[in-house]
Amino acid sequence: MLLWLGIALVVLLIDQLTKLLIVDSFAWGDSQPITAYFNLVRVHNSGAAFSMLSNASGWQRWFFTGIGVVATGFILWMLRNHPTQKLFCFALALVLGGAVGNVIDRLAYGHVIDFLDFHWDFLAPLFYQGHFPAFNVADSAISVGAVCLILDELLRVRRSK
Length: 161
Known about the structure:
This protein is mainly alpha-helical and 161 residues long. It has helices at residues 2-25, 59-81, 86-109, 137-160; strands at residues 31-33, 38-45, 112-118.
């Protein structure tokens, strides 16, 4: 269990450190091009993924914080009950670190700080001016963790045949 909690802690620390660097270096709405397809930005997301419910009246802050707290408890329970399933626990550790990172933002700021902005012309039909919604390290860890959970399940089903 300590290994998985350590991985979650590393994700959490990297997430919070990068967000602090962005807050110290950028005003809200600022953007710094890095490459032709990548910018560092500072945006605030009071909603969930893809800014879902970001225009709600404020209740979403506590709703998504609550979901994060419940998810944290459930993940800790799963880690405790499946310590030998390495890929599964690695995936849960990534999701745990990311979830706690975003919960900290919601509690501290009332929104999540996002700063990674990728944009390509081929995304223009889907996203405004081809900009994929900005995200952060926590979101990345949650996404990689979700992919690892799917892979773990596919491998488990394959082994059972």
